[in-house]
Amino acid sequence: MSRARNHTARVLREWRLGRVSPQAVLVTSELATNVVLHARGIGDYFELVLRRREGVLVVEVSDSYQWEMPELRKPAEDETSGRGLLLVDALAQAWGVRPRVGAGKTVWVHLALRGDAEAG
């Protein structure tokens, strides 16, 4: 997970998108954690894609786990996990899940870019 977070932070520095970096790194961390926790031992596919388009940063995390699509839920107060997608939902302009060709799924997140340097 640290490699995914570090990669996201490095790419966003290179793209001069520092203002969205904390949110993007947190989203990347939550999605990568979900792959590790829920797709562990199922397959060996993990992909992180970052794209910038039309004032939006697109973060996509794909894996080869095909049996269960992530769903937004509200965990009970005493649960120690299950809040990752709540964080993603709070930070994202939009997000969703789509099946991959073959096995697995891709979780995508759109984060709004603000400021002249970031909107282009």
Account of the 3D structure:
The protein is an alpha+beta fold. It has one domain (2-119): Heat Shock Protein 90, CATH 3.30.565. The protein is built from 4 helices and 4 strands. It has helices at 2-14, 21-38, 84-91, 116-119; strands spanning 46-53, 56-63, 94-99, 105-112. Strand 3 (94-99) and strand 4 (105-112) form a beta hairpin. The termini are far apart.
Can you name the CATH architecture?
Answer: 2-Layer Sandwich
What is the fourth-level CATH superfamily? Histidine kinase-like ATPase, C-terminal domain
Give the amount of beta strand, in percent: 25-35%
Task: Evaluate the radius of gyration.
Answer: 14 Å
Low-pLDDT stretches: none
Write down the overall mean pLDDT: 83
**Count of DSSP-assigned helices:** 4
Helix content: 25-40%
- Widest sheet, order of strands: 1-2-4-3
Q: How many strands, what sense, and barrel or not for the largest sheet?
A: 4 strands, antiparallel
Total domains, how many? Answer: 1
Q: Structural class given helices, strands, pairing?
A: alpha+beta
Q: Which CATH top level class fits?
A: Alpha Beta
